[in-house]
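Q: Convert this sequence to structure tokens.
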Amino acid sequence: MASTAQSPGALALAEILSQPQCWAECLQALDKAGSIEQVRKKFTAREDWLFIGCGSSFYIALAAAASWTALTGSKARAIPASELLLFPQLILTGSSRPQPVLISRSGQTSEVLRAAEYLEKKLNIRTLAISCASDQPLEKISSLTVHVLPADEKSTVMTRSFTSMLLGLEFLAAGIAGRTAFLESLRRLPASAQKALGGLDARIQEFVTARKFADYVFLGQGPFYGIACESMLKVKEMSCSYAQCFHTLEFRHGPKAIVSPETLVTFLLSERAYEAEREVLEEIKGLGGTTLAVANAADAATRRAADFLVELGLEEPEYARLAPYLFAGQLLGLFTGLSKGHDPDRPRNLSRVIILGEKDQQGSSSSASV
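A:
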């Protein structure tokens, strides 16, 4: 897509397409900073890890918690920061104290800052943070902050910051667990993903130009559920379209009532549950829905059932290739927004950082990519 720096969506498009190179720079920075060893020294082994964020950062938490459990064998869960602040007894009740991980692109998100202060100052629980900005309030509160500075964006919406922070957390998990082969697969991923991304923007732009949809649905299981949630949010933010996300097999239990040719249903097909998820894809296609499938390697049945197929063809293990599964959702949101006359760089009603006022801090809340 030809664009200038002033064109609507130009920033977001450039940031989406820059992701593989950005990942390489972020992983190199984590290596150089000795981040794995810093985390090992600062935090004792815990069986319960708690990943905390807001908006897109909460969806990072969902995917990161799944990855953390798979890579380390420790229990990990994800919560929005507001849940910890408003219903702490539901989060912290138990025999062991969790190890919190705070996620914020800006390091300024009010609810994450308040969660950090609550954990550090009131409960005396040491926190680990990850951010794309340095010298921000979150870094001053948390016991240790890991930075992925090359990933910060100029656009309002989170794209490369999301995938870079997710990869950064997977990098830490693999390092703590001594998963040397997985670390090497993450280091190879940028080059592999660059090939998978090549030409995808033009294909999705053509698809969006040719088809108009009333509803968007994103489906994923296990570690891909957080990716489905973030894909849904990208379409909402950048195009102001109605979008939903579900666990893939849960879509059969009521939600499939909305299926029609005007409903675009996107499937993030995993390797582990491929056959079960493909059966849902075939069912939705049979009901008349329009389908988009993202798979690492697609079989003949998936090719028949998908109106649009993204086949990544990556050699890295499944958990190492979560981030590239987001390419399609990001580009779908961007080009859908442009087709509707919006500027995806400046979504309606949103800002880059959610900072709550005094009234908000006493009860109400806001949400966006943060």
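The CA atoms of residues 40 and 71 lie 15 Å apart.
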